Amino acid sequence: MTCSNDKRVQAGMMAMDEDWGDVPPNWTTYFMVEDVNAAVEKIKSLGGNLINGPFPAGEMGDLAIVQ
After folding, report:
1. How far apart are CA 3 and CA 37, in angstroms?
2. How large is the greatest C-alpha to C-alpha distance in the chain, in angstroms?
3. Which of 34, 18, 27 is nearest to 65 (CA)?
4. 11 has which bridge partners?
5. Cβ contacts of 57 within 8 Å, gap of 6 or more
6. What is the pLDDT tens value at each position of the chain, 67 positions in all?
7. Which residues contact 24 (CB under 8 A, 6 or more apart)?
8. DSSP-assigned states of every residue in 1-50
9. What is the pTM (predicted TM-score) of this model?
10. How far apart are CA 18 and CA 30, in angstroms?
11. Cα separations (Å) of 29 from 16, 25, 38?
């Protein structure tokens, strides 16, 4: 489910399934980027970690959980 303002997605919610493992239900901040795969590679090159994804997240496009 997404929440939009002037046709621009501002927030969203999604169901978590068994693929998420032991991650408890939570709220998180996300940022929309032009290319999620390129963003993940940049994050990893700067010492960040890929937790999950990228995976399809409905009308929001692809999503990756990073740390």
Report:
1. 24
2. 36
3. 27
4. 3
5. 12, 14, 63
6. 777 888 877 777 778 888 878 888 888 888 889 999 999 999 999 999 999 899 998 777 899 999 9
7. none
8. -EEEETTEEEEE-----GGGTTPPS--------S-HHHHHHHHHHTT--E
9. 0.66
10. 21
11. 16, 14, 19
List the structure tokens of 47: 């010492």
- CA–CA dist 64, 55 (Å, integer): 7
Tokens of 52: 């999950």
For 40, other C-beta atoms within 10 Å of its C-beta total 19
* Tokens 């959980």, located at residue: 65
Residue with tokens 């032991």: 22
